[in-house]
Amino acid sequence: MQDEQQPTNPEIKKRTIRSFVVRGGRMTEGQQRAYDANWKTYGLEADQGRIDYQEVFGRESDVVIEVGFGMGASLVEMAKNAPEKDFIGIEVHPPGVAKLMMLAAEAGIQNIRVYCHDAIEVMADCLPQGQASTFQLFFPDPWHKKKHNKRRIVQPLFAQQVANVLKVGGVFHMATDWEPYAEHMLEVMEAQTQYENVAGKNTYHPRPEWRPLTKFEQRGERLGHGVWDLIYSKLA
Predict the structure, then answer these.
(1) Where is region (Interaction with RNA) located (predicted)?
(2) pLDDT value at 18 more than 70
(3) Given pLDDT bands bounded at 50, 70 and 90, which one contains residue 4?
(4) I need a labelling partner for 184 at 20 to 30 A (CA). Which of 30, 131, 145, 199 fits?
(5) Residue 114, pLDDT score
């Protein structure tokens, strides 16, 4: 992750350190069939450049962006529960993309699209600037070892890149079950002048009822693990 001395121009496109590791990227035959069958309906190609939300979804709506949706169940549930909104998921893990599209197709959901590509490049090259209503980042890799902390996706530059795609009044919603990472997120975001903490300065937000509980989170709750939500609104 680049440090905060790097320029914050919205046309920033690349960085040399990835914020993710592709794990088990090879798909099973079933996953590949699901991917191939549903990509035409739900897939967005990064090399096609900047999209127009109204053209993609055929309407004007509030658009929710989620980075790192895992296997997609919670994002599909959110799209199902909020048919008036449109959702774009960004994930580098092909089996997760295949699963999300399969779940969406089974549920007959039309208000969701997906990129199978690096989020930083999609944000810089593909997403309209200043138009999304919500940006979600749930349970990103915490990179526990101190020497790897620089790989955490929530850094000052990333906060600026999220602000670039959000409209004024749009929200950046994060959640993590790793308290040191929650503290890191809070420290980074409180230093950003283009955001306001919805819950109050230096305060975590209660889990909103509309954020589905993932199996991962439910297991953590049974083990007594905490979860921390942070919600920041973009200022003018």
Answers:
(1) 147-152
(2) no
(3) very low
(4) 131
(5) 98
CB-CB contact of 157 with 14 (8 Å): no
For the chain, the domains span 43-234
The pTM of this model reads 0.87
Q: Which of 3, 36, 86, 141 is catalytic?
A: 141
**Residue 216 counted as an annotated binding residue:** yes
Catalytic residue flag (residue 229): no
Give me the CATH code for the 43-234 domain, please.
3.40.50.150
Residue 66, annotated as binding a ligand? yes
Question: CA-to-CA distance for 229 and 148, rounded, in angstroms?
Answer: 22
Q: What is the DSSP string of 161-206?
A: HHHHHEEEEEEEEEEES-HHHHHHHHHHHHT-TTEEETT-TT-PBP
Q: Is 196 annotated as a binding residue?
A: no
